[in-house]
Structures are given as C-alpha cells and as structure tokens.
Amino acid sequence: MKFSIDRSDLLRSLGHVHTIVERKNTIPILANVLLKANDGVLFLNTTDMDLEVTESVPASIEIEGATTVPANTLYDIVRKLPEGSTIDMEVPTGDNIMTVKAGRSRFKLGCLPVEDFPQMSEDSNWPIKFEISAAKLRSLIDKTRFAISNEETRYYLNGIFIHATEHEGKQVLRAVATDAHRLARFETELPAGAEDLSNGVIIPKKAINEIKKLIEEAGSNINISLSDTKLKCSFDHITLTTKLIDGTFPDYERVIPKTNDKILEIDPSSLANAVDRVSTIATEKTRAIKMTINGKTMTLSATSPESGSATEDLEVLFESEPVEIGFNANYLMDVAKQINSDGCIFTLADGASPTVIKDAGDDDALYVLMPMRV
What is each CA distance from 170 to 190, 228, 258, 362, in whole angstroms? Predict the structure, then answer.
C-alpha cells in the first residue's frame, strides 16, 4: 500500500475517528485505525466493539491496499506536522511496518493484520430508515443529554430514549433522558419512515456524545438506519454505527405531574445566574438550594455549616399561595440553560412534589425536577 494525502484532510478525518479509541486498551487491535486505500479514496475505520466510525477522504493512491496502525499515535504525528504539508504513507507488500513521511520527518509504525480488525457495520438488515435534519437531531440531543444517568447499575438510563409517539394530535419523534432526579423531554416532527419506531430505542451516552461532535460539521440532512440491536448515522463522508442499549426504558409519563396548579414565571438567565451565585455557599455534597416564593418575589437561599449562608431576591410572576421548595443547584442550572426564550415557566404542586419546567417560547421541550429536603 502506498499513497499521498494532504495533511489537513488526514488530520480532520483522524480527528473524527480517533476519539472513540481508548488510550489504554487491553485488546491491541482496538487501539488501531483501519486504513483502506483504493480507487482514489482513503477509508478510515475505528471501533471499540460497541461503537464504530468510518470516514472516507480523497487521496493520491499509487498502490492500493489495507493495514491497521495505532490510531492515537498516528493522530498525534499528523497533528504535529507542519500545516500545508503532504504526507506520504507506505507499507511494502508482506511487511508489517508503515512509513510515514512529510518533509524531513519520517516515522515508522507497527501494523497489525487487517483480518483481526472487527467490523460492526456489516449488518445488512436495517428495517427502519429515515432522514432528519442536522438541526433537529442536534436539538433532540442538546435538550436531553444533560439528564442521562451515569449510574451503571441502572444501565437502561445510560442513554437517550428515542421513539415515535403522538402528542396533541400530531405524530412526533421524542427524545427522553432521566437519572431519576430529573427528566428531560424534547420532541420534533416525525420524519417520514420513522413511524415504526413506536417501541423506541436507547442510544448509549458515548454514542450520543460522538454524534453530537460529528453533526457540528454535518451538512443539512442525516440518514438514520436502525436494526434490532444497532443504529447507524450517515452524513457527508462519515458513518457512525453503535450498539443500542438492550433494556427497557421506564414509563416516564408516570413521573410527569399532571395536576400541578401553581404557576411561576421567571427570566431563565436571571435564574441561572442567581442560582450560580447563591450555590457558592451550598454544601458541596448535596448542592441544595431553597426557593421561597411569595407574591412577586422569589428568594433563593443556601446554607452550609462550613461556609455560612447566602440569599438573593428575584422578581417573578406568581399568584398562588406561598411555596418553599428545595432543588439541587446544578440540576436547576442545567435546566435553566436549556431555556432559549425570555420566559421560564415552573408548574408546582407543593414543596415535596416533582416540578414541571417549560420554555415559554418552545412547547416541544419539557423538564421535571425532583425536590430536595432543605
């Protein structure tokens, strides 16, 4: 195998595929990137057995072939080479050493057999296929991923649940994430072809984070394919394939209160900034902050045996009986940061019941926060 490639093209592609490779790997082949050069194109492929990323990039190919080399080492080499340089890469027939040359720099990398490299995306049966805009997929992820659980014992919460459902007479594609302390739900118009997604799938957190990074550079539309156990995203010259979480997502509708009748309206940026300031005093372990709502004023307060106390008053719209309720400050700020309009609406019952939070300018988003005893 022998080819030449522009440094910027190779760096961009390696930047996409190398991030799923663990720096410390007990299986040597999983530390490598699979390189295939043929027909004027270099294909790059990495996997951790649960997630796979493949990308193609134009290259000047003299001798076609394939090999695998350490992904993070190759990325570090290319990153440190001069901008604008051309990289020559060669593996002599029958050899297991790749030579990488650029200007006066020369590197030799050990190769592992292509036959040992596992392939995930060779699943030919993708019964569900649909196309979604990059903007819509970005919103589904951005509005919910902060609520994904990190608790490994409840593995079915370690991702975003995406499914087709009906809401207020229209078909929607809905994303939900929860860690049992908070819940985030966002929905968008159901794309054609996604109607059979009624049972839903759970996309793992690592895959969600990689998709998020890749769609920042994606074009207008992304093709989604689903099998019983995998999801594939294809856009531009990149394909990401991930295993789905094999579990049952809980009935989240049961934890969304339907009878909360106390309405609080507040500016979300003012709320986030005030919570950030007052929580400086909050106990590090619980991060508890209290909201005391009375008429047109809400007082945020926090106390700590070590640090002291803090309070701040905010103007609000509230016409119900006074309420005191406690929240985790970090969770409250996470939700407030998702509100893009000038209005944030809290729907409360009392100080011991879950609170529903909505964006006054966006009916597609809904959040639930569990209270804390303060």
Answer: 9, 26, 20, 16
